[in-house]
Amino acid sequence: QQQVKQSPQSLIVQKGGISIINCAYENTAFDYFPWYQQFPGKGPALLIAIRPDVSEKKEGRFTISFNKSAKQFSLHIMDSQPGDSATYFCAASLPGDYKLSFGAGTTVTVRA
Amino acid sequence: NAGVTQTPKFQVLKTGQSMTLQCAQDMNHEYMSWYRQDPGMGLRLIHYSVGAGITDQGEVPNGYNVSRSTTEDFPLRLLSAAPSQTSVYFCASSYRGGTGEQYFGPGTRLTVT
Lengths: 112, 113
Prior knowledge:
Chain A has no helices and eleven strands.
């Protein structure tokens, strides 16, 4: 039973468009919410992460929005580029715990 | 720094065979873990270790063994391979007390026939 539910499974966006990936969790004790990016044939790599004391975090074209009351968080990719085509995983972990619970992943394809 | 390295990159096994997937890191990270990645399932934790001599089970440990005799190495053993263990396996490491970021290896693609 996945502790973090991720949607959609895949999405296609035009170059310059906005990609939005959503995740929901049940365990309110989670206190660390990272997003990992994975290119084909490679291991995942940390993209951006947030803790529940803030509602938004932005790094370049990537933004995490966090809604603690709804137990949801999302990744927004602004001005999507073909180089952003990858699989994105959301995850969550408990305080002091290094184990990550991952979502199922979203494959993003950016069309030129 | 080589980061997290995994060998082999690809492996084909017959049902019932055993093998060891190797993982090493040169970042002096205390925490190491093994995940398997299957389509539509994300990454699921198999086993993890918080330091040399300490290991524990993750979400899907059955059919796998681990040991951690040194800080650098964390091998994963398949005792008697089954087709259900066909997957891509990733090793990851993390620095305790850091930001929580986990560094992943390039993966091993295993096929069990």
